[in-house]
C-alpha cells in the first residue's frame, strides 16, 4: 500500500440497545401434553428443568412472521424509522432454506431501505453474537442502526418421542435495535467455541443422508444432556465473570442476570458459582416458555422489562451458550 491508504468512515462513539421486542407463539403446551410420548411426568420435568409449559408455533407463526412481529415492537420502542436500520442480523437454526437467508425477506417486510441482511448460525449463542457484531458495526461506521433478531421454530426439529429433548425445546422470537449512544451501553463481548465438543448438541444427520434414506424424516436435534449440563454450569460462570471484568464492573454493580434459558438448574448453578447477590434479578422465562435457543435471551429480557424486574439503565449480564459448542457473553445497559 502506498500513500495514505483508503478513506475510512467514522462510526458512533458508543453503541447501545435502544429497544427490545418479542413474540410468543399462541400455542401453550403444558407438560401434561408431552409426557406420554416420553414416559415422563410433570413433576420430573419441573424438577429437572424448571419447565412448566412451553410455546409452540402454529403453521401460520412462521420464522419470518414471528421475527417481523418482535422487530416491529423493538423498532417502535427504539423510536426510529425502519429506514434507519442499515443492517439486519438474524440468528436462527430453524429457517429451513439453506439459501437465501431469511434476513433479506425480514428486512424487506419491515420496510428498511434495502438494509444489509444476513443470517448467523451460532445456535443458542446466536443473539449475543449478533449484539456483539451490531455494536461493532455501529461503532465502526458500517451501520447507523442495526437490528438483531433471535428466532426459532425448534418444534419443527424436535422428536416428540426423544426423552432428552422433547420437553425442552420451544418456539419464539426476540429482537433488539442497536444504535448510537452518548454513553457505552454494550460491554466488550467474551466469546469463543469448543469444537472438540461439536457432537454434544446437533442435528442427527445431514440433509443428504435424510434424502437418501428409505423413509425420510426430519433430521431432529439430539443432545448429550448431561455433558452439556456440566459444561454450561461450570464454564459459563467463568465466561460471565470475564464479561463483568471486561465491562469494568463487579458482581455488586450488577442488577439483572439473563442467561440463555436452557435449564433452570443451569441458571441456578451459574448464579451460585458467580456468587450473585440476592438482589440481582434473574431471568426465569424458561418456566413458561421452554428453551427457544437464539430467541431465549431477548424473550426473557423483554419479559423482565414488562414485569418491572429490569428497569431502564440497569446493568444486565447476558450469557449465551449452545451447539458448536459456541458461547458469547456481554454486559448491556437495559434500554
Ligand atoms: C436433559 C436433562 C434435563 C436430563 O436431566 P439429567 O438429570 O441429566 O437426566 P439423565 O439423562 O442423567 O437421567 C436421569 C434419570 O432420569 C431418566 N430420564 C431421562 N429423561 C427422562 C424424562 N424425559 N422423563 C423422565 N425420566 C427421564 C433417566 O432414564 C435416568 O433414570 P435412571 O436414574 O433410573 O437411570 C439435563 O441433562 C439437561 O437439562 N441438560 C442440559 C440440556 C440443555 O440445557 N440443553 C440446551 C443447551 S443449549
UniProtKB/TrEMBL annotation:
Stored PANTHER family: 3-OXOACYL-[ACYL-CARRIER-PROTEIN] SYNTHASE 3, BETA-KETOACYL-[ACYL-CARRIER-PROTEIN] SYNTHASE III
Pathway: Lipid metabolism; fatty acid biosynthesis
Keyword tags: Acyltransferase, Cytoplasm, Fatty acid biosynthesis, Fatty acid metabolism, Lipid biosynthesis, Lipid metabolism, Multifunctional enzyme, Transferase
Protein name: Beta-ketoacyl-[acyl-carrier-protein] synthase III
Matching NCBIfam families: fabH, PRK09352.1
Gene designation per UniProt: fabH
Localization per Swiss-Prot or TrEMBL: Cytoplasm
Enzyme Commission (EC) number: 2.3.1.180
Species name: Nocardioides mangrovi
Keyword Iron: no
Record note on quaternary structure: Homodimer.
Pfam families: ACP_syn_III, ACP_syn_III_C
Beta-ketoacyl-[acyl-carrier-protein] synthase III N-terminal domain segment(s): 118-195
All copies of domain Beta-ketoacyl-[acyl-carrier-protein] synthase III C-terminal, residue ranges: 244-332
Lineage: Bacteria, Bacillati, Actinomycetota, Actinomycetes, Propionibacteriales
InterPro entries: ACP_syn_III_C, ACP_syn_III_N, FabH, Thiolase-like
Chain positions covered by the region annotation ACP-binding: 261-265
Principal location listed in the UniProt entry: cytoplasm
Catalytic residues identified in the record: 124, 260, 291
Similarity comment: Belongs to the thiolase-like superfamily. FabH family.
Catalytic reaction list: malonyl-[ACP] + acetyl-CoA + H(+) = 3-oxobutanoyl-[ACP] + CO2 + CoA
Domain-related comment: The last Arg residue of the ACP-binding site is essential for the weak association between ACP/AcpP and FabH.
Role of this protein: Catalyzes the condensation reaction of fatty acid synthesis by the addition to an acyl acceptor of two carbons from malonyl-ACP. Catalyzes the first condensation reaction which initiates fatty acid synthesis and may therefore play a role in governing the total rate of fatty acid production. Possesses both acetoacetyl-ACP synthase and acetyl transacylase activities. Its substrate specificity determines the biosynthesis of branched-chain and/or straight-chain of fatty acids.
Amino acid at each position: 500500500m502506498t500513500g495514505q491508504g483508503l478513506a475510512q468512515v467514522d462510526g458512533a462513539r458508543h453503541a447501545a440497545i435502544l429497544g427490545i421486542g418479542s413474540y410468543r407463539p399462541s400455542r401453550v403446551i403444558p407438560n401434561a401434553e408431552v409426557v406420554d410420548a416420553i414416559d415422563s411426568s410433570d413433576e420430573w420435568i419441573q424438577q429437572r428443568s424448571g419447565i412448566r409449559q412451553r410455546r409452540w408455533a402454529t403453521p401460520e407463526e412462521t420464522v419470518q412472521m414471528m421475527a417481523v412481529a418482535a422487530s416491529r415492537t423493538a423498532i417502535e420502542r427504539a423510536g426510529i424509522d425502519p429506514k434507519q436500520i442499515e443492517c439486519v442480523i438474524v440468528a436462527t437454526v430453524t429457517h429451513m432454506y439453506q439459501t437465501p437467508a431469511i434476513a433479506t425477506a425480514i428486512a424487506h417486510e419491515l420496510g428498511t431501505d434495502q438494509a444489509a441482511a444476513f443470517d448467523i448460525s451460532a445456535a443458542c449463542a446466536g443473539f449475543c453474537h449478533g449484539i456483539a457484531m451490531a455494536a461493532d458495526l455501529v461503532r465502526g461506521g458500517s451501520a447507523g442502526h442495526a437490528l438483531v433478531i433471535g428466532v426459532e421454530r425448534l418444534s419443527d426439529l424436535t422428536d416428540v418421542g426423544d426423552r432428552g429433548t422433547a420437553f425442552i425445546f420451544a418456539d419464539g422470537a426476540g429482537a433488539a435495535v442497536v444504535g448510537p449512544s452518548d454513553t457505552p451501553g454494550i460491554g466488550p463481548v467474551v466469546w469463543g467455541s469448543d469444537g472438540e465438543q461439536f457432537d454434544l448438541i446437533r442435528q442427527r444427520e445431514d440433509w443428504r443422508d435424510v434424502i437418501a434414506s428409505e423413509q425420510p424424516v426430519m433430521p431432529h436435534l439430539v443432545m448429550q444432556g448431561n455433558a452439556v449440563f456440566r459444561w454450561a454450569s461450570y464454564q459459563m460462570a467463568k465466561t460471565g465473570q470475564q464479561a463483568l471484568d471486561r465491562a469494568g464492573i463487579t458482581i455488586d454493580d450488577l442488577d439483572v442476570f439473563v442467561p440463555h434459558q436452557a435449564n433452570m438448574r443451569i441458571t441456578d448453578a451459574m448464579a451460585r458459582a458467580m456468587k450473585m447477590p440476592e438482589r440481582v434479578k434473574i431471568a426465569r422465562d424458561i418456566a413458561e416458555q421452554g428453551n427457544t435457543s437464539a430467541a431465549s435471551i431477548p424473550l426473557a429480557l423483554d419479559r423482565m422489562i414488562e414485569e418491572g424486574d429490569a428497569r431502564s439503565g440497569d446493568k444486565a449480564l447476558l450469557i449465551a451458550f449452545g451447539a458448536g459448542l459456541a458461547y458469547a457473553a456481554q454486559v448491556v445497559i437495559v434500554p
